[in-house]
Amino acid sequence: MPPELLRSRRGAPHVSAHRGASAVAPENTLAALDAAWRAGATLAEIDVQLTRDGHIVLMHDRTVDRTTTGRGHVKDLTLEALRALDAGGWFGPQFRGERVPTLREVLAWARGKLVLLVELKNFPFREMPLVDRTIELVDELGAEDGVVLGGFDHPVLRDIKRRRPRWPLEMMYTARLADPAGAARAAGASLVSLEPEFVLPEDIRLLHEAGVAALTTLERPEEAARLLSWGIDALESGDPAMVVAAIRAAKTDA
């Protein structure tokens, strides 16, 4: 996706589905991504990491314990072992049989449907070839227009920007930054994920002046109007249908 397309157009922000539509389907699965697309999301945040045998799979936690029928660290399991696990039954019986997807599968499925915000879960940071493998896969599939790589490890973002200067990147952080726009420029980011408790209109304005888009989580529907008035570019939730409805209501009441 060209970086400029991350910006909202005429008060119509992007709707981003957190780990897919994780409020209505098991997170980081094709079921959650399909539900997000059907709900009207334009972006979907996913988490990726490497298996023991070097495959990129979708998984948020270091271990598979919480979201599958298995146990153990992702980095210690082969793709074959992961694929044997049920990744949906924990969420609801209708999702039994859902499998842990590979990034390759998800990139193929998402083409023309959703732009993927791919969070690189480097455990530990900078010591695994996840970044290299992800860049190679995106190059192989010609998927650069449908992917925004991101993460909390800002030196890694700078390295990706050096290697692929035209790719948009997403900068994430969990603390209040004194200068989000300056940090985004330093990391080479085109999109900054702002923690909802730290969102200020001045930060959004300064990000826009730097040519950087701003995303935050929509925690309650009634907050949409305020965030839209500040010029937010993307609103994220595990319930993208709620976000779509909240944006529609805010624009109707304006």
From TrEMBL:
Boundaries of every GP-PDE domain copy: 13-247
Gene3D superfamilies found in the cross-reference section: Phosphatidylinositol (PI) phosphodiesterase
Location of the region described as Disordered in the Swiss-Prot/TrEMBL record: 1-21
GO molecular function, one term: phosphoric diester hydrolase activity
SUPFAM superfamilies: PLC-like phosphodiesterases
InterPro entries noted in UniProt: GP_PDE_dom, PLC-like_Pdiesterase_TIM-brl
GO biological process: lipid metabolic process
Record protein name field: Glycerophosphodiester phosphodiesterase
